[in-house]
Design a protein that fits this description.
The protein is an alpha+beta fold and about 300 residues long. Helix content is about 40%, strand content about 25%. Strands 1, 2, 3, 4, 5 and 6 form a six-stranded mixed beta sheet that branches. It has a four-stranded antiparallel beta sheet with strand order 8-9-7-10. Bound molecules: L-homoserine. L-homoserine binds near residues 13, 256 and 257. Its EC number is 2.7.1.39. This is Homoserine kinase. Catalyzes the ATP-dependent phosphorylation of L-homoserine to L-homoserine phosphate.
Length: about 300
């Protein structure tokens, strides 16, 4: 038995929704092919050029499969062939795609024994391997599709939100920002004033998403806690954000822990103009970049 999956990139956090809000996009995506083996080995093959480890316990997909195998006491193993297009370290949910794809693919081969919450439980081991933290904001939209709210991870409580008809522009500048470093630099304590502002934004964003209220989404895409600190790690962040808003973006911010930046727009033309602008800002300072114009998946 063999199955093939397309596993989407994800933007998570969605600005103010640190560790709780994420969305799946159409492009880029990874391709994964799964085979159930009669023997208990886990075989991971990467047919891409990223040089990721293939030893199962050191591979994001492999660790998820090992955990599933252990949980079900399986005599079977899995062979997974991964063609990654979502660049590792981009902030576009590359590790989440491998982890969520592994949980989803194994579940199909095992006859859909796992609930979505259980798939998330297993996929979080992959995120832990990749970044040291068992966060689910990228995995959840990867498995559920669209936009999701991670209400809690203990117990796993995921709310699937509406998917507004919006375009997503993302740019990945080729600079290294490690998720672990981008988490380390965050303040451990925040003021009540910032907390109130932030939860106003989060509530506004969720309400805007549910009501297809685009101006409300735009007004709520504000992060007063994480972005001011993390944006320092991303060259030209403020310039790209300001120029995107001038070109008509509703709003946007850092994708995940960076270095990618994303913007939401109502019109395809706006999203494409923003993509051109992003590319030229990085070309000017001789940083290679990749841009994607996509939709919420
Ligand atoms: N929510 C995580 C963070 C995503 O912002 O650190 C990292 O991929």
């Amino acid at each position: 038995k063999k199955i093939k999956l397309k596993v989407p990139a994800t933007v998570a956090n969605l600005v103010c929704g640190f560790d709780i809000l994420g969305m799946a996009v159409h492009d880029p995506y990874d391709e994964m092919e799964f085979r159930l083996l009669e023997t208990p080995e886990i075989i991971i093959k990467h047919i891409d050029a990223f040089g990721l480890p293939e030893e199962p316990s050191g591979n994001v997909a492999g660790i998820v499969l090992l955990k599933i195998q252990e949980y079900f006491n399986l005599k079977n193993g899995f062979e997974v062939i991964i063609r990654k297009h979502i660049k590792p370290g981009s902030g576009l949910g590359s590790s989440a795609a491998s982890a969520a794809g592994a949980a989803f693919g194994a579940n199909v081969l095992l006859g859909n024994k796992l609930s979505k919450e259980e798939m998330i439980y297993f996929a979080m081991f992959g995120e832990e391997l990749a970044s040291g933290v068992r966060h689910a904001d990228n995995i959840a939209p990867c498995i559920y599709g669209g936009i999701t709210l991670v209400k809690s991870t203990h117990p796993i409580d995921i709310v699937s939100l509406n998917s507004p008809d919006l375009f997503v522009t993302a740019v990945h500048p080729q600079v290294e920002v490690k998720t672990s470093d981008a988490r380390q630099i965050l303040k451990k304590n925040i003021t009540l004033k910032s907390a109130v502002e932030q939860w106003g934004n989060i509530a506004g964003l969720v309400a805007g998403i549910q009501k297809n209220d685009f101006p409300l989404i735009g007004r709520s895409l504000n992060d007063v806690i994480i972005e001011p600190i993390r944006s320092i790690l991303i060259p030209k962040f403020d310039e790209i954000k300001a120029k995107s808003l001038q070109l008509g973006a509703l709003g946007g911010g850092i994708s995940g822990s960076g270095p990618s930046i994303f913007m939401l727009s109502e019109q395809k033309e706006t999203a494409e103009k923003i993509a051109e602008m992003m590319k030229s800002v990085y070309t000017e300072i001789e940083i290679e970049s990749f841009v994607y114009v996509s939709k919420i998946n």
